Every structure is written in C-alpha cells, then in structure tokens.
Amino acid sequence: MIEDFTNSDCEIEYEFTDIALSVDCFATACTGQKYAIEVKDRDIPIEKYSTYLLEMRKYNALMAAHNDSGYTPLYRCYFQDGVLTWDVSKIDITNRVEELKCTQTTVDYGHKVVKKLIMLKKEEAIDKKRGGKHNC
Length: 136
Prior knowledge:
With about 140 residues, the protein is mainly beta. The chain is about 10% helix and about 45% strand.
C-alpha cells in the first residue's frame, strides 16, 4: 500500500483497525517511520472533480495520531484510473472546510447528514499514480 512512496525497500508492517474508526490502518516501516492511514476507494475517474473530499473527523483523527504519537498522517484515495496520497499534516486547512449533505457512511446510501469536509487539491498530493484500477 505505501511501499511505493516510502523510498525504502524494506517490509512494512500493517495493523488494520475496525471499519467504524476514522483511521483504517497503522503502518511501520523497517526504518521506524510510522504512518496512520485513511483509505478511500472511489469508483470514479481521478479527473472527474477538481477537488477531493476528506471528512473533518477523519482529518482530526489522523492529526491526533500525528500529534500524539508521531505518525505521518496519510489520506490515500484509489480511483478507477489512479491513486492520490496526501500527507495531511502538510495541508493548511484554513478557509477550506465546507459543510455538505452526504451519506452518513460508505455503506448507508439512504441516510444523509451534514458533514464538515476539507477540499483537497490534486497538486497537494505527495504521491500520484496513473493507470488501471489500483487495489490496496
């Protein structure tokens, strides 16, 4: 999942969390670098929108892992034709939070709630891959 941008040939150990939590997994490279990762699988082309959504509660959970335990907080989005990864600790979210009506959860398409979302830009991604569908 993250081997392609850690600049390391070593093995990465993953610890996956409960699906209901705001961080999908924690990873540690043999170099000692630690990552907190939120993963999204978007069934759309990578260029469909000019911005990409990250829920504020997920941003807060990633930043808590960063501030409390030194994890690099990553948001990784898989698209039909590529992958984008952001280090959210490097993104200034000032004036970038919007409230939008969205589905409550990924699996609950019928129930909509208002969520605070951060609009991310493609050029802010630390890793950009093009090509066929990528899987984690």
